[in-house]
Amino acid sequence: MKKKWYCIALSLLLVVFMVGTAFASTGTNWRSPYTPYKCTYAMTDYSWSISNVKWNSESVSWYNACSYRPAWEAETRSIPDPEDENGEDPLFNYGDYWDRYNGVISVSSNLPNAYGEMDADDFSVGCNNAKNLVAETNYSASLQLYRKDPSIYPIPSDFRYRFESEVGEWMLYDAFPVYYQVHHEPQDEKRINTSYSWNDPTSTPINAVGGVQTTTAAVEEEISVVAIGEYDSSSIAKADEKLQQAVAQSEEQAYRALVVFDEYLSPDDVAEQFENVEAVYCWVPGETGRSIIAVKDGDVEASILEHADFLEEEDVSDELTEIAQQYKNGNIGIFAVRVSETAQELASARDLSFVKAVDLHADVQEGVVTAVSGNTKIIEVPEKPDKDFGVY
């Protein structure tokens, strides 16, 4: 899986056509092959998690037959507020998670090519290449959420949400949805701090899942999507060229960058070599999955241990609890970091023997390096050092 440098200009109006049936309303319930046959999920005040997630061989074959790079997501989507008794919009917008959360602190999952994200009305965990799923493997994931002050921004007692199993085309626009299914038990409305699940090893029928499929016609505005972190010799050369242009422009200007390693480093190694670390990509070497952890106050080790405590406290699954213990025992490998450094410091980091590439979060326009504009979305998908051995 070589580096693909995606820079896609998208324009016109987003049009989504519903070409299936909302099976919750018809009573005809089924599970599409892209949806796992088994899953448990829950949302708490501070987390979104899935566990006991399995696909069968039919599902894996379905993903392998996709002509595009399929990304699967487990998504929690908030349900919009009803109008108040006077027909006015409510003071609290149920449909906007930004009313309660500032973002994602961390994600951990043994899904291949795992990632997590937050948008205005949904949280997602998933894998950006579902062709790497293994049939009958038990997967899980946990997203740690950054809450706003609960005394000022409380979660209403009647808060509710939907669960969607979604497959999209990765890199078209942040796993733009191709198909999705809604788990409804009951009436599509889930409550916080309550777990829900289904378990049906057959293809059909399944009483707990309905489905709708979508097609896309266009998007709202011109947006550039740049993916960084997967490399061949050509894309490494492009990243190096951009870095050298930044040095030539100004050695002292600070840039955000993704630094990817070709070996696993310990937290101490990273702390010794890098300052201003914003996030680390790490996992247990030789195992499928990854953690993406925001670094607080520049302390890499403390941030990892705090994340391990979170995984143990959440007790999402045996797999993630074991990962937490491995982290605490020092069996952890960091394979990429996001940093903010001057161009010269980043150039010096590129010369380190274990650094595979340094990719600036920046544009190059007519040979001039500039900060990324609001219309550019950077997606980090760093490769793991042992991915050639099937470890994603």
Q: What does this entry look like structurally?
A:
With 392 residues, the chain is α+β, with helices and mostly antiparallel strands. It folds into two domains: 16-216; 233-389, no CATH class. 18% of the residues lie in helices and 37% in strands. The chain has helices spanning 23-26, 57-64, 233-249, 267-273, 300-314, 318-328, 343-350, and strands at residues 16-18, 38-43, 47-54, 70-78, 101-109, 114-118, 122-127, 139-147, 160-169, 176-183, 190-191, 195-199, 209-216, 224-228, 254-265, 277-283, 290-294, 333-342, 355-360, 362-365, 368-371, 376-380. Strands 12-2-3-8-5-17-16-18-15-19 form a ten-stranded antiparallel beta sheet. Strand 2 and strand 3 (47-54) form a beta hairpin.
Which short descriptors sum up this protein?
392 residues, alpha+beta, 2 domains, 10-stranded antiparallel sheet, 8-stranded antiparallel sheet, 18% helix, 37% strand, globular, disordered N terminus
Largest sheet: 10 strands, antiparallel
Number of domains: 2
| SSE succession | EHEEHEEEEEEEEEEEHEHEEHHEHEEEE
Q: Main sheet: which strands, in order across?
A: 12-2-3-8-5-17-16-18-15-19
Shape: globular
What is the terminal separation in angstroms?
11 Å
Helix content: 10-25%
Find the count of extended strands (DSSP E, 2+ residues). 22
**Unreliable runs, pLDDT <50, ≥5 residues?**
1-28, 203-208, 215-220
Radius of gyration, Cα only, in angstroms? 21 Å
Return the structural class.
alpha+beta
Number of helices: 7
Strand content: 35-45%
Q: Report mean pLDDT, rounded to a whole number.
A: 81
